[in-house]
Amino acid sequence: MDGTTHTEAGVPGTTTAATTMTTTTETPALPKVPYQAQDVQEVAEVLRVLDEAVKQKKRSAFTIKKTRFAVANSEAGYYVDSWKMNDWDYKRRDLPTYARGLFTTRNEHGHPSIAVRGYDKFFNINETHETRWENIEARTQGPYEITLKENGCIIFVSGLADDTLLVCSKHSTGDRGDVELSHSSAGEARLGQQLQRLGKTKQDLARDLYTRNITAVAELCDDSFEEHILAYGPDKAGLYLHGINLNLPTFRTYPSVLVQDYAEQWGFIKTELMVLNDIGEVRKFLESVAETGAHDGRDVEGFVIRCRMSPKPESMPYQDWFFKYKFEEPYLMYRQWRECTKALIQGRTPNFKRHQAITQEYLNYARKRIAANPKLGRDYNKNHGIIQLRDEFLAFKHLNGADAANFEQMYGGTSKTEVTKDVILLPIATIGCGKTTLAIALGHLFGYGHVQNDNITGTKRPPRFTRMVLDELQTHPAVIADRNNAQRHERKQILTDVKNMQLNATMVALNFVHDDIDAIRAVTHERVFARGDNHQTIHAITDAGKVVGIMEGFIQRFEPLDLSRAPDEAFDAVIDLSPTAGSRKNLETVVRQLHQLFPNLIKEVPSAEAMDAAVDAAIGEYAPALRHEIIDRGKNKGPSHTPKQNQSVKKAVNKKPLEYMGVHVAAKDVNAELERIFKGQPPATARFYKQLQQTRRVQPAFHVTLIHRASAKERPELWERYTKLHADAEAAAEAATGSVGATPPEVGKVDVQLERLVFDDRLMAIVVRLVSKDGHAGAAEAEAGQAKDWTCVNKVSHITVGTRDDKVKPKESNDLLARWLDEGSTETNGITDVVFEGKPLLQGAVRGVLSR
Ligand code: GTP
Ligand code: MG
C-alpha cells in the first residue's frame, strides 16, 4: 500500500471511478481513486508557519510572499491567498509544505482550507542529492510514470465551496487590470470552450473538483496565446492535463491513468504517458531519447517521471515523488543541429541563435556530406542517420559533445579542432626577419619539419620546394616552408601547387608585417652582418657590398599580405609577426596562436623556459648544411640567456672529425673568371655552362680538395699531417676566442692558378695549379699541379664547377679528368677543354671541412 495514514474512501457524492473509467479503452482495470478530506487543524498549522515566515526577516528563515486575490465570479465573495517561495528554498528540510503553487482560502464554515495545490517542487536529474541516479535507483519504487514535459504555462483548476471555478496560474489568478490577457484568464477561456463542447458547465467541474478535494494541473499550450519553443498549432493547442493533486499539505497525487481518465471526462487533452516498472529501463529510455531529442517523431523538452520515494526505505514510508529529466547541453545543441539539417535538406534557411560557430561548422560539414550522398538527406528526413551524421562530424572535429556545446567558451569559436596535421607555415618576409630561426625553434619544440628554399639548387626550384614541403608532411604534423614569399607570385605558386597536390593541407601565413621599413632595415642588417657567412647564399663577410643590395631588393619588392584577393585569400589563417620584435617574442606569438587556432595540433603551450631554450638553440647552433659546415641541431647546450648576435658563430659546438682538407677560393672570383672565359666562345661551347647556371647547378662555393677522408688509408702520413694542422689551428683559435667557431679556422694560404676548363655533358671542372706564396711550386710537385706544402692526392688538382644533377657526384671530376688526360678532348669522347687566358691567379685559403 501507499504507506500513508489517510483513509482510502471513495470520493463522496461523485460517480464512482469504476463506472466512469470503463470508457477508457487502454486500461480496463483502473486503480482506486484516492481521496482524503482536509484536516482543519493541520491546514491551520501550515498557515501559521507560513504567516510567521512572511513576517520574519531572519536570514535563516525561508522567504515567502503572500498575495491576496479576489476570486472573480464568486457569489460568496471568496478570496484566495497565493504563497510564493523562492525556488531554492524548496531544497530546505524545514518547510511545512513543499507545494509549488499553493492557494488557500476560508471555506463555507470559515475554516482555513487549501484551494489549490501544485505538485511538490521537483528537481532535474542531478540537480539535488535526491535526484542523483544512484539515489533514485536506491530509494524509489515503481511503477514509473513517464510523461512528456509539455511546453507551455501551468494552470491550476479547482472548485470553491460555492461552486465557483478557480483557475490560477502558478502564483496568481484573475486579470491584472491591464489590457493583456493573464495566463489564468486565457486558461479559463480555454476551459470554457472545452466544457461547452461536452455540454458541461464550469459549475459542474467546480463541484466535482471540490467534492474530490483536488486540484487539476494542466499545461496551457497555445501558440495563438503565447509562443514557446515547441510549436502548438490550432490542432494541438489546448489544456494538457498532466496531474491531479489532493488539496493536502503533504503531496498526494492521482496515478496517471486516472489523470488521463479525468482528462477524457472533462475535455482536457491527454498528456502522453508511458509506464515502466524498472528504473534501469527508465534510465535507458531517457538517455536514448536524449540522444535524438525527439520521441515518437515529436520534439520534447524532457520528461517528468512520477514514482514513489522514501528517504529511508527500510524505516520510512514511500510517498508520491517526481523528478524531471530535462534535456540540456549537448542535447539542445543536437536538437538545433537536427532542425537545421532538416531545413537544409528541405531548402529552407536554417535558423539558429545558439552555438553559432560550431553549428555553422556542423552545417558546412552536413551540406557537403548530403551533397555527396543524396540518400543521406532522404533518410535524414525520415529520421534515420541523425546521430550518425552528428557523431561523424564530432569525430572529424576531434570533439566530444560537451566540448562542442562549450565550443565558443573553450575556443573562442574560431578554432579548427579538426586540424591535427598537414599544416604548412608559410613566412611572408624579407632577409633576416628570423624565418630560419623560428623554424628551427619550432622544430625543437614540436618536431616540425623544415624545408629551406636556400638549400635547393638546380632547375625548377619552386615545384621542387613545394614537393619537399609536402614530403615533410608525411613524417611531421607541420612544416615551415622557409622562403621569403615576399611577392604575391611566390605565394600564388605555393598556394596553388599545394592545392593541386594535396587538397587538405592547412596554409598558415607567418606574416612578418612590414610597416616601419627603416627599423626593419636596421634590425635585419645588423643581424645579417652579425651572421656573417653563416648562410647558404647571403655571405655578409665575403660579399658585403652585394648583400646590402640583395636585402634592399627584397624590401623593395615586398608585397604585403592582402587577404581580400587572390592569392592571399587562400590562406586558412594568418599569424602577424614583427620583424623587429625578436625571435623569442615571435616564437611565442606563433605558438600561442597556433594553439588557439588548432588546439589539437598544439595541445598545450610549452613553458617560457622551453621557448627560451628553443630560441637559444636556434640562434646559437645553426649553420647551414649546404656549405658542409657544422650542424648541431636537436641539442640545446647553449646558455639560457639569448646570446649576442656575434656570438652565434663562435658558440661551442661538438668537435666533429675532418671530412676533407681543401683550398677555398672566393665564389665571386671563380664566377668572374668563368664569365670571362665563355665570353668569346661560340654558343655551342657555352651551352653546358648556361645549363648549369639556369638550373642553379653551379656550386655556391668552390674549393680544391687536397685529401678526402676516404683516402686516409692510402695516404696515412698526409692525412695525419692535415688533421694535425687542423687541430692545431683550432686549438689556437679556441685559445684566442674562448670558443670553437662554426667555420673551421684557416691553416694556411696558397694561390690557385686556373689553367683549363674541362667538361662534358655531365660535369664541369677547372684544372688548377696550386702556387705557394713564394711563387714556386716544387719541381716534382709542379708536374701534378701541386704546391710544396699543400700536397693534393688527386691526380689532377681541380675545382668542380658543377654537375648536371644530383646523380652526378662532384668526385666524378676525377674520372673525367683522368679520361681527359688519357684521351684529350675529341669529338667522340664529348670532352671539351678551354684554356684560361693569362692563367689567372686566385687567392686560396686552406681550411678543413668537418663531417656533418
Ligand atoms: P634569410 O634566410 O637570410 O632570409 O634570413 P632568415 O629570415 O632566415 O633569418 P635568420 O633566422 O637566419 O636570422 C638572421 C640572423 O639573426 C641569424 O644569425 C639569427 O641567429 C639572428 N637572429 C634571429 N632572431 C634573432 C633575435 O631575436 N635576436 C638576435 N639578436 N638575433 C637573432
Ligand atoms: Mg634563412
Automatic annotation (TrEMBL):
Residue span of region Disordered: 1-22
UniProt feature, compositional bias: Low complexity: 7-22
E.C. code: 6.5.1.3
Taxon lineage: Eukaryota, Fungi, Dikarya, Ascomycota, Pezizomycotina
Domain named tRNA ligase kinase: residues: 424-579
Originating gene: trl1
Superkingdom as given in the UniProt entry: Eukaryota
Similarity comment text for this entry: Belongs to the TRL1 family.
GO molecular function: RNA ligase (ATP) activity
Domain tRNA ligase phosphodiesterase positions: 582-850
UniProt source species: Sporothrix curviconia
Protein name: tRNA ligase
InterPro entries with a match to the protein in the record: P-loop_NTPase, T4-Rnl1-like_N, Trl1_fun, tRNA_lig_kin_fungi, tRNA_lig_PDEase
Pfam families cross-referenced by the UniProt entry: RNA_lig_T4_1 (PF09511), tRNA_lig_CPD (PF08302), tRNA_lig_kinase (PF08303)
UniProt cross-references to SUPFAM superfamilies, sorted A to Z: P-loop containing nucleoside triphosphate hydrolases (SSF52540)
Limits of the T4 RNA ligase 1-like N-terminal domain: 98-332
Keywords linked to the UniProt accession: Ligase, tRNA processing
Catalysis performed (reactions): ATP + (ribonucleotide)n-3'-hydroxyl + 5'-phospho-(ribonucleotide)m = (ribonucleotide)n+m + AMP + diphosphate
